[in-house]
Amino acid sequence: MSQLHLINHPMIQHKLTIMRDKETGSKDFRQLLKEISLLMGYEVTRDIPLDEIEIETPICRMTAKQVSGRKLAIVPILRAGLGMVEGLLELVPVAKVGHIGLYRNEETHMPVEYFCKLPEDIDDRLVIVTDPMLATGGSACDALAALKKRGCTNARLMCLVGVPEGVERVQREHPDVDIYLAALDSHLNEAAYIVPGLGDAGDRIFGTK
Ligand code: PRP
Ligand code: URA
After folding, report:
1. pLDDT of 117-129, one tens digit each?
2. Does the model's pTM come out above 0.90?
3. Cys-Cys link to 209, which of 38, 121, 162, 203 (CB 3.0-4.6 A)?
4. Catalytic residue among 17, 21, 51, 108
């Protein structure tokens, strides 16, 4: 069974509160999402493999640790997942970035895939799938299925805000994928929006509403 990691560090909670506030504009919303993504990245990458390399300090030679960064891929679910890429790239600059385009049909709330471009060696990488919102879980499950269809065997899902139904759906359909959240909210409303949530993440990032 996949694990749910709730990363409720005080700095993350503080920044998330500002993001939730409806008075917060796109510029600050984007900046805060980037900052939280970097902070969450510490936990998401906590156990990634290290290589040993030989270096020389000013004092002597030593065997030192180095992240196998080339083995990592970040795959945002378009659009809103894009807002989490920059923060993660600051942490792991050599990671490759793939993209999966999904949007939720506004009436059925079902995700529709419109784009997929991944690093060629996706089967050889730990993939961090990013999306700020885990609502019904449909988009995340479809994105993970699309990745697996193309050879991915090692993925983690990093979201900002989720609800129990979304978490349970991912755990049911993708028991091999750990989920990382900054907050587990109460429930979905009749339009499948997270309550209390932060509204439409894509629109708030890109100022489209
Ligand atoms: C939002 C969000 C997730 C999805 C979550 O994207 O960024 O991808 O909804 O909902 P779900 O868990 O019920 O599938 P949206 O479809 O609004 O597209 P956008 O990112 O282009 O705004
Ligand atoms: N997508 C969003 O952007 N926000 C929600 O609350 C649910 C889905």
Report:
1. 999 999 999 999 9
2. yes
3. 203
4. 108
